[in-house]
Amino acid sequence: MGRPLKKDVYGTKVTRSFTGSQAGILVQGYFGGSLASDYQIVKQRGKSTYVVLKTSTDEFTEAESIPGTITGTNLKVGKLVETTPDANGEIRILGSTTGQTPGTIAIAKLTKRLARDFSGNKYKWYLDNDSSADVLVLIPV
């Protein structure tokens, strides 16, 4: 897997714990029988597996660290999929080549410098905020 994802190439933190419209990389997730689009990445566990937290039920404070083991009732482990998540434990990260939200390109693998879609295309990426939400901006390599 390499090093766990924490910041983009410009040093912008991309995991949970932001204020206002800055939420890091937002993720669609299917857990407990329902789909929601307000999950945030807490940490990366593998090349396509992430621990996520639903924004609306965030039980942790800004200064509080997330436990090393998954003990929080709202922490979920999800695996990246290409289409809209429809089975328990599926998540989807969408990126945009135009910088607009919502993104349209499903991400299969994300490292600090490169993103790869499910067709094998590679992109450099960074996190940008368009004043309404954070956007995963993709630049074809």
Report on the architecture of this protein.
With 141 residues, this protein is an all-beta fold. It has one domain. 0% of the residues lie in helices and 42% in strands. The mean pLDDT is 79.
Task: Describe the structure concisely for a colleague.
The protein is mainly beta. It is built from no helices and ten strands.
**Biggest sheet: strand arrangement:** 1-2-3-4-5
Tell me, briefly, the overall form.
globular
**Sheet of most strands:** 5 strands, mixed, barrel
Spans with pLDDT under 50 lasting ≥5 residues?
none
Multimeric status of the protein: single chain
Number of separate helices: 0
Mean pLDDT: 79
Radius of gyration: 14 Å
Distance separating the two termini: 21 Å
Order of helices and strands: EEEEEEEEEE
Number of strands: 10
Structural class of the secondary elements?
mainly beta
Topology:
Layout lengths: L25 E6 L2 E11 L4 E6 L20 E6 L9 E3 L1 E2 L9 E6 L3 E4 L4 E8 L4 E7 L1
Parallel strand pairs: 4-5
Antiparallel strand pairs: 1-2, 1-5, 2-3, 3-4, 6-7, 7-8, 8-9, 9-10
Using brief descriptors, characterize the structure shown.
globular; five-stranded antiparallel sheet; 141 residues; five-stranded mixed β-barrel; mainly beta
